[in-house]
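Ticket 4471: requesting a sanity check on a complex prediction with guanine. Repro inputs:
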Amino acid sequence: MAKLIDGKVISAAVKERVKQGVAKLNEQGISVGLAVIIVGEDPASKVYVANKKKACEALGIVSEEYALPENTTEDELLSLIKELNAKKSINGILCQLPLPRHLDEKLIINSILPEKDVDAFHPSNVGRIMIGDYDFVPCTPAGIMEMLAYENIEVEGKTCVVIGRSNIVGKPMGMLLLHKNGTVTICHSKTRNLKDICLGADILVAAVGRPKFVTEDMVKEGAVVIDVGIHRTENGLCGDVDFENVSKKASAITPVPGGVGPMTIAMLMQNTLTAAKRQNKIG
Ligand code: GUN
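Returned structure tokens:
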């Protein structure tokens, strides 16, 4: 049976670190502020935003929530972002995705000042990740790297396979593993011989978006398996990995729920603290 990589424990450790960092800035008379924008009524987005607000409060980060109606125009949203870009007390700006269809997501993301882009979605921050000179990393891959470090799982020299090539998870995940001297393969829906490639993985990251996609016959004995997926099924929540069977083969594995999920908000808090430090020329 694999060791469970416990996202609740590791995210608590990250949040404690951030809380201390925020307190240290507060002692110097510097507050840390995060603005969260949500447009429309998507129920899942509302839950995420509420959780982000709760996390801020627990760590001493001042959160400002901007809940805008579904029919908000692009100009209205851009003008709010412009205002927040200029607002001294706001260090980080997050615009919850997905946006209603009439709003151009790319245009909105690009309008956030890169220094305040705590999601690391702006092309400037994406490019900085590519060259290995970055302040912010998208929260999910950042959380996974934190988990590997916490568990003393060495990446250098390892064969790392990422299934999924999204801009938010797969691509930055691959880059972060590469920066740690892993040998990285990024797989996707057109990949041939996926099973054989996965079987070579010492570290396997599943970010496919399909329930129980990774089965035990795709996993090498002793591999580290990281499950980014979360799916609501008739039998409760599950991930992209068939946990019950894969956990018998892996040496370490993240559960769903309680694995990667709790890490993402913790890393958002970390990025917000980093933003505040950079903007105040500390650290
Ligand atoms: N929607 C789902 N996940 C995220 C995230 O990490 N950031 C933003 N801005 N929107 C999301």
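Notes from triage: The chain has a mean pLDDT of 98. Leaving this open until the requester confirms.
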